[in-house]
Amino acid sequence: MRLFSVALRLFRLAGEAFFFLELNRLFGRFLHGTVHHRKTALRLAESHLLSHVSAPCRTVTISLPSNLAIHTIIVGAAATNPTNIGARPLVLLHGHSMGAASFFRNLDHFIHMGFTSIFAPDLPGWASSSRPLFTGDVQDALAFFLIPFYDWLSHFNLPSFTLAAHSLGAYLAHEYTVLHPKRVSRLILTAPAAITRNTPLQIAMWFNFTPQRFLTRGGLFAHLIFATLYPSTKAYNLPGFRDFTLFSNSLMHSSGDAAAAAMIRITRTGLFSWQSECVRPLLERVSRLHCTVHIITGDDDCLVGVHAVRQLHTAMLAAGNHATIEVIPGADHSPHICAPQLFAKAVMRSLSHFRSSHPYLQPSASVTSPFLFTS
Description:
Elements: H1 2-32, H2 35-50, E1 57-63, E2 69-76, H3 77-80, E3 89-93, H4 107-112, E4 117-121, H5 138-156, E5 161-166, H6 168-179, E6 184-190, H7 201-208, H8 211-215, H9 220-229, H10 241-250, H11 255-261, E7 264-268, E8 274-278, E9 292-298, H12 306-318, E10 323-328, H13 335-338, H14 340-350
Parallel strand pairs: 3-4, 3-5, 5-6, 6-9, 9-10
Antiparallel strand pairs: 1-2, 2-4, 7-8
Helix pairs in contact: 1-9, 2-10, 5-11
């Protein structure tokens, strides 16, 4: 009789849990809509962001031999004439769980710096690009990102280009440059991730259980987590940017998250103790490159500390590279988002074209973006 009573209680508990989860799912469906609706909302949010870019701009979807579709933003000369890339093309790679449109406050700056065309893909597994299922280890994770990137680049037939990237994108950009040194004429790494082998456990846990993974379930609970954790600062709440972040990460199967998690290893060392490490850290991959390397970071970066970034810069110099470093005061892990004007000045200095009164860093009649010169 006691066993029957216990079984009945467990059955009721399971029923209540199922009811809660189903209610949570239905609320999420009401908030976020169907997957098709979220994809449409994501494109609309991206269009809203790109409407603030004054340079010629368009989006295309590049079909790869692997049947993946890579959503791409093209700015500058190639946006109006695909055969006119110009002498100074720039390729941008976004960071973890983001998309190419996260550079929307920087695109006009790059064009004014003299880059003739800009090509920025949504990396596979994120935003509007294909999200193939990921399984495997760190080598598979690199292949997951770099093979499609290589095929995507082949579509544009760029002989050489400047490669600028943020966070995980910066890690991938360095790996690509090591593998294809003659293609990259200049490398700009902004807040590069995965620098040291030692990784704080809380950061490792974040990469394995990101808020985005909750969002893919689309529930009310997931929405509350997003609303709680999303930054409250003005830079991250410009019109369209919050929606872009939300719908980029609420689509099903964020396989980019799973691939990135493979770069972090968490091992149990005791009954209630664990340790974590980056499996393939940048510091152990540094070598002599054929191009100049510019590193930019914020001094308020809680994910990648300034000390680690300085270690990377020192290692770059020790390997015989011509490398520079810029630390942006008050900037977080995404200085190109939170302080776009200071970020632009840092890039200008690194390119040796900076002047304290450079006309491109002052508002002018030719620049119509309301966000271009605000930080």
